[in-house]
């Protein structure tokens, strides 16, 4: 597999992470907006998580697949880098939800019993609460997807081996991954009685598998050579995502179109990446993990406080206040990213740097990609 001339930092993909996170945020917060009903596009916001999963497979293949195929891949170093990326913020938000729940309980406020789900605390701490070990949702519920990501990280050598085997037949790999996605989605719904995209703490580990494989396969197509007319493909793929989501079509269509959008954005020329490669868009992408992980605790805090201030017992807020809560979430994400996420990541990676040998680590180029383009929700 001869690498094409691709930028180390896939800036448009970093920016895409923010829009995926924002889609999820709108979906979660829409019930707190004082309007009737939910538009179909907002109702499909949970698919922003699927977009993250596809991005994860694509980016991790971008960073590690060549080293894996050349037997330069260090599994321990890979897992430690993943822990440094996801765990500090996971732990911070879990403790934050715990503090909010205990404070509300002490103040005599009624909270959902699943918030302080002590029996699921250990699975949450071990990041296995989306593997069927939790039994119920609890704590920072969106973190189920981090548990699913952890499952994919542990399984990455299997995905990488399959991708490396098909490296000379990228479109065969893409077709196989798309078929896997269709089979799993259709089969799961028939067996479980609900869609795979509705699975969280029970079957989240299964939910990531076809998306992650799809991302790995799309990376093979990217490495084969830049897609022709990448900007046009990006517009068509984005339009297909919006239209299919707005029409409430099968979730798999949205996911497949999202993958093509990722492939197109990755193929944009480094010197002319467009608005998705701007510094502002890339920075929003860098804080997207914090936006996603803070959404539920911020909703608990901000919506309850604002509802009490304006006397909205149904927790339905006017549009301007609702938009203010989303803006406040982004500001909070900036602060947490700067004060918690980045410093903790540097500390954990610093510990590893003192002990690891060069054979256990990705190259300096790979580390740069991880810092700027790594997709994690």
UniProtKB/TrEMBL annotation:
Superkingdom field: Bacteria
GO biological process, one term: polysaccharide biosynthetic process
Keyword field: Acyltransferase, Membrane, Transferase, Transmembrane, Transmembrane helix
Residues spanning the membrane: 12-30, 45-65, 86-111, 150-166, 171-188, 200-220, 232-248, 254-270, 282-300, 320-340
GO cellular component: membrane
Location of the Acyltransferase domain: 14-335
GO molecular function, one term: acyltransferase activity, transferring groups other than amino-acyl groups
Annotated Pfam families: Acyl_transf_3
Protein name as it appears in the record: Acyltransferase
Biological source species: Brevundimonas naejangsanensis
Source species taxonomy: Bacteria, Pseudomonadati, Pseudomonadota, Alphaproteobacteria, Caulobacterales
